[in-house]
Design goal:
Helix content is 44%, strand content 11%. The chain is of the alpha/beta class and 433 residues long. The structure holds flavin mononucleotide and iron/sulfur cluster.
Length: 433
């Protein structure tokens, strides 16, 4: 495997970089200076050419999204999505805790390019340390003249505020985030209109993930061609992958986008724990369909994983060994989604609830012969039928767990039935209730 030069994580482990002076000593804010010498549209074009795919989950090209921001007078906003709620994901927290100015520099460049004078950083409420560190960095950026009435002496005004989040997974969905920021319940809204046209306070708004914005200074510094060379076609740059589960060395790693899932598990993370074998992998956070060991020779970019029937999502890789019960893993996942559904849409509110109910009875040994098809049928009614994609995020993995491990689910149901029969008439009645 070719070694990856470090960009996003180059200041990790260097406490001096938490300060403005330490960040500048390592070459920080040079990209902002460069951007301020360019026309705003040239900066947008450069980010477009760098094929920067949004790191929040959907992989939408950042430059293209920026191009959609409605023109015209009046306030426009940049909202930074630092909610990081996807189970398994550990990347935005470290980016903020270890190198807050990198994200702030990305914010400054984006706002200059987009003609935005107000940005909000919406940070997950439980991230007390990150909130403290980012607030201190914002304060220092004001003191050093990066933010305020004249960004680095350019005459361009930019204000940045930190907003601790409301503690719900759905507040990470961009329109839920904007509702929460407005002081309302964090409930998603139907799209279109997209936030770039009608977002915060009904004004044009760009929502970008922390990692997306942290990449921006490096595109300015390196140029689009060199940045693209670190990735694959249409997936520019390096990427932070976070691996958890049954590998020898879990953790987060900045790697080229062309790393394969097999390399990530076996070369980067040391492979499985002694005596264990790989059973399944979730490649992109809990919302992504599960992959079998025969499917891990796939590149870890947005397009390759989509072709493989899954998704890169937040690049949170969850590795499961041969001791893992897939039935219980799905049950755990469904508990999460049924709890986190905001309840606005019937297919999501009822669907996540019933998927979890049925999963619970399978786990408890009360599964019924038609339960798996019933679950698949519920999933079909959820996908594409709701305001936001939380319903899909629950249904698509459920379909994949059942389709790829159906035998294991059927064994569970049969074992439960046998227990019911052994328990006599009363037990049988319970098993078929
Ligand atoms: C249920 C749900 C939760 C989400 N949570 C997050 C999150 O915690 N952080 C994030 O950046 N994006 C999250 N997203 C994606 C955002 O809606 C949005 O696509 C993203 O912030 C856009 O930024 P990007 O274009 O830079 O990737 C979530 C989406 C859904 C449907
Ligand atoms: S899909 Fe679920 S989480 Fe999203 S808006 Fe509808 S009910 Fe809420």
């Amino acid at each position: 495997m070719e070694p990856t030069p470090k960009y996003l994580t180059r200041n990790f482990g260097n406490p001096a970089a938490l300060t403005y002076d330490g960040y500048v000593a390592g070459g920080g804010y040079a990209a902002l200076k460069k951007a301020l010498g360019m026309a705003p549209q040239a900066v947008i074009d450069l980010v477009k050419a760098g094929n920067l795919r949004g790191r929040g989950g959907a992989g939408f090209p950042a430059g293209v999204k920026w191009g959609f921001l409605a023109k015209g007078d009046g306030p426009k906003y940049l909202c930074v999505n630092a909610d990081e709620g996807e189970p398994g994901t550990v990347k935005d927290g470290p980016l903020m805790e270890q190198d807050p100015h990198q994200m702030l520099e990305g914010i400054a460049i984006a706002c200059y390019a987009l003609g935005i004078h107000q940005s909000y950083i919406y940070i997950r409420g439980e991230f007390h340390k990150a909130i403290r560190i980012v607030e201190a960095a914002v304060e220092e950026a004001y003191a050093k003249g990066v933010f305020g009435p004249s960004m680095s002496g350019s005459g361009f005004a930019l204000d940045v505020a930190v907003h601790p989040g409301a503690g719900a997974y759905i507040c990470g969905e961009e329109t839920g985030l904007l509702s929460s920021l407005e002081g309302k319940k964090g409930m998603p809204k139907l799209k279109p209109p997209f936030p770039a046209v009608k977002g915060l306070y009904d004004r044009p708004t760009i929502v970008n993930n922390v990692e997306t914005l942290a990449c921006v200074p490096h595109i300015l510094n390196l140029g689009a061609e060199a940045w693209n060379a670190l990735g694959t076609e249409k997936n520019g740059g390096t990427k932070l992958y976070n691996v958890c589960g049954h590998v020898l060395r879990p953790g987060y790693h900045e790697l080229r986008h062309d790393v394969t899932l097999r390399q990530l598990i076996y070369d980067v993370c040391g492979g499985m724990k002694p005596g264990r074998t790989l059973k399944a992998v979730v490649p992109g956070g809990s919302s992504s369909p599960i992959l079998l060991p025969s499917e891990i020779d796939v590149r870890m970019d947005f397009d390759s994983l989509a072709k493989a029937g899954s998704m890169l999502g937040s690049a949170a890789v969850i590795v499961m060994d041969d001791r893992t019960s897939i039935v219980r893993a799905l049950d755990n996942l469904l508990h999460f989604y049924s709890h986190e559904s905001c309840g606005q849409c019937t297919p999501c509110r009822e669907g996540t609830h019933w998927l979890y109910e049925i999963s619970q009875r399978i786990v408890d040994g009360r599964g019924r012969p038609g339960d798996l098809d019933r679950m698949l049928d519920i999933c079909t009614n959820m996908v594409g039928n709701t305001i936001c994609v939380l319903a899909d995020a629950a249904a698509l993995p459920t379909q994949s767990y059942i389709q790829k491990f159906r035998g294991e689910f059927e064994d569970y149901i049969r074992a439960g039935e046998r227990r019911g029969l052994l328990g006599g008439i009363e037990g049988k009645a319970v098993a078929h209730a």
